[in-house]
Amino acid sequence: MHGKFFTREEIREMAGFTPEDKYKGTGLWPWFRHQADVIEQEPGRKGKAYRIKTEFYDAMLNCLGM
């Protein structure tokens, strides 16, 4: 998944939310706020696709021993 941008819909789907869920995406809102430290938006598609910033992704892999 490293380096790939995901749309909000793809993130919700991977998290197990269904279209019938009343509060779909509720747990995601902190990551989409302006100036989020961990998430970056895809250039040219503001508000459309997101990914974990490389330095945070690499740090997570390092902690997991991968």
Overview of this structure, please?
This protein has 66 residues and is α+β, with helices and mostly antiparallel strands. The protein has one domain (6-63). Helices cover 32% and strands 14% of the residues. It has 3 helices and 3 strands, in the order βααββα. The chain has a 3-stranded antiparallel beta sheet with strand order 1-3-2. The longest helix is centred in the C-terminal third of the chain and has 10 residues, at 54-63. It is globular and about 35 Å long. The two termini are 14 Å apart. The mean pLDDT is 71.
What's this entry about, in short?
The chain is an alpha+beta fold and 66 residues long.
> Biggest sheet: strands, sense, closure?
3 strands, antiparallel
What does the overall shape look like? Answer: globular
Question: What's the gyration radius in Å?
Answer: 13 Å
Going across the biggest sheet, name each strand in turn.
1-3-2
- N- and C-termini, Cα separation: 14 Å
- Fraction in helix: 25-40%
Order of helices and strands: EHHEEH
How large a portion of the residues is in β-strands, by DSSP E? 5-15%
Mean of the pLDDT scores?
71
Structural class by sheet pairing and helices: alpha+beta
The unreliable regions are none
Give the quaternary arrangement of the chains: single chain
For the record, the count of structural domains works out to 1
Number of helices: 3
Question: How many runs of DSSP E, i.e. beta strands?
Answer: 3
